[in-house]
Amino acid sequence: MIDFVTVDRLGGIASARQLRAAGASSHELTAAVREGSLWRPRTGIYALPSAPAAAMAAIAARGRLSCVTAARSYGLWSGDDARLHLQFAPNARAGPRSGHLCHWSPLEPHAEVWRVSLGDCLRSVARCADQETAVAVFDTAISAGFTNPVALREVLARQPVNVRARGGLARAGADSGVESIVRQRLQGLGHIVEQQVHVVGVGRVDMRVDGVVYLEIDGFAFHNDRRQFERDRARDAIMAALDLRRLRVSAAQVLGEWDVVLSRIRSVLAHTANSQEGRDHPGGVACSIY
User: What is the pLDDT averaged over residues 197-209?
Assistant: First the structure.
């Protein structure tokens, strides 16, 4: 009998060897293909009709999803590189791979036949992606509980010095790749950034800049969630009552209008400094930024 639970657990694609080990016979596999409950994208490989298109493309090319493409499949940040990154063993016989970015390196043993292990994924990202994207992938992997700073150093231990250095820039606390990018950019400009800061009556705030500006970053689906919209408005009201300087920006603004976002952050910082000066000097005017 074909164990479809096993196929699903392996990401929707499994080898004939894996299926036979789970109790399926060659006759049952052939019958499943004929009736359409399984596809056979290539000899010795079987897939559910619901298998991801990227995974099927990797199988067709005789490779495995790698780098940022694999990161995306693990639910991690993957940047804006839409190319299909595939990894092949050094002596592998590759199939059609036009338009794909190919990585040729030894493959760490991994049960899933369509993507590399998480360790291979992180190593490939560290070597191939730009630094900002690589660190954002690491940050989201840490936040998701897939790794931690110590384990990440071990994963990258045999990589070149510049690759290992990227791992050293990873930090816990980013709930999204966009938050990681904001943290990296602000720290690169000399700002002090604290992530996941607790505010009494409000809860966790994404980050605090230079100890005074509380920054919230709305995700891409923010405006489609009315309840989240209302919760965030309530949080803003509490922070206003506490006279806390705060700024809310969207992920789209961070990625597409960073100069505008940075200008707003600096404006709030400047107003905060002026407000404090007004309190400290007679005749000054204190102002609140909402």
Answer: 91
Distance CA 196, CA 211 (A): 13
209-215 LR contacts (CB < 8 Å, sep 24+):
209/265, 209/269, 210/269, 212/245, 212/269, 212/272, 213/245, 213/246, 213/247, 213/265, 213/268, 213/269, 213/272, 214/239, 214/244, 214/245, 214/246, 214/247, 215/182, 215/246, 215/247, 215/248, 215/249, 215/265
d(CA 22, CA 147) in angstroms, rounded, equals: 30
- pLDDT reported for residue 238: 81
Could you please report the per-residue DSSP string of 47-73?
E-TTS-HHHHHHHHTT-EE-HHHHHHH
What pLDDT is attached to residue 68? 98
pLDDT tens string 118-167: 999 999 999 999 999 999 999 999 999 999 999 999 999 999 999 999 99
Please say if the pLDDT value at position 5 is more than 90.
Answer: yes
Distance CA 79, CA 72 (A): 9
**Residue whose entry in the numeric block shows the structure tokens 């070597």:** 127
